[in-house]
Design a protein that fits this description.
This protein is α+β, with helices and mostly antiparallel strands. It has a domain of 141 residues: Pnp Oxidase, Chain A. The chain is built from 4 helices and 12 strands; from the N terminus they run H-H-E-E-E-E-E-H-E-H-E-E-E-E-E-E. Strand 4 and strand 5 form a beta hairpin.
């Protein structure tokens, strides 16, 4: 091929390359949404309703058996924070969302909220004592993670409790006010089944139990 032929071929190549659509730039990871103001229940919200006996409501709804989890994160100061939670549930597959409820008086929640991410550890039947540790209020000054074996999750670095049945790693997707609790939605970024072959830890009528078959 002479110089003229090589020039024509080069022009054709450049025209063909220009006609091809450019590769799309990868979309940046979404920023955690702005969270609502974290506040306790105000006196004006404690209105009488059809059910004005909270103990009766707790007793009746305690007949609904649930699993038990630990919600945890690394606070902005680098220390772990977490609390026991029985209201965790799967919400959506597309997009992958989970949810849990937390009291607006919780001392642990603001630290997790400011982290913008969290890990859910699904507790096994033999982890009742550990659950009681995480059920203690952080306002008491107790170090809930003292002596607790955990490792950082690969997705967000949030603490994963050792020997749990499963881990679900999430970023905070949305937070809604629901009475004296907050309804937290998490977007799943990673999840894994744990090594334990034990059954689940169950909570029923104020106490722990386990699944029998």
């Amino acid at each position: 091929m002479g110089h003229e032929g090589m020039a024509v071929a080069a022009v054709r190549y450049l025209r063909a390359a220009a006609a091809r659509p450019a590769e799309a730039e990868p979309e940046p990871a979404p920023e955690p949404p702005e969270l609502p103001q974290l506040r306790a229940v105000g006196p004006d919200e404690r209105l009488p309703g059809a059910v004005d006996d909270p103990m009766l409501m707790r007793s009746v709804l305690g007949r609904f058996c649930t699993g038990v989890t630990v919600i945890s994160a690394l606070a902005p100061d680098g220390t772990p924070a977490g609390f026991a939670c029985q209201s965790f549930s799967s919400l959506s597959l597309d997009p992958p969302l989970v949810s849990f409820n937390v009291a607006r008086t919780s001392a642990s929640w603001p630290r997790i909220a400011h982290a913008g991410r969290f890990c859910v550890s699904v507790l096994a039947a033999d982890q009742g004592p550990l659950c009681r540790t995480f059920a203690v209020s952080s306002a008491s000054g107790a170090d809930k993670f003292a002596g607790v074996e955990w490792s950082p999750s690969p997705g967000t670095g949030s603490p994963r409790v050792a020997h749990a049945l499963a881990w679900i790693d999430c970023t905070i997707h949305a937070v809604h006010i629901g009475g004296d609790h907050l309804i937290v939605l998490g977007r799943v970024c990673d999840l894994e089944v744990g090594p334990s072959d034990a059954g689940p830890l169950l909570f029923y009528r104020g106490g722990f139990g386990e699944l029998t078959q």
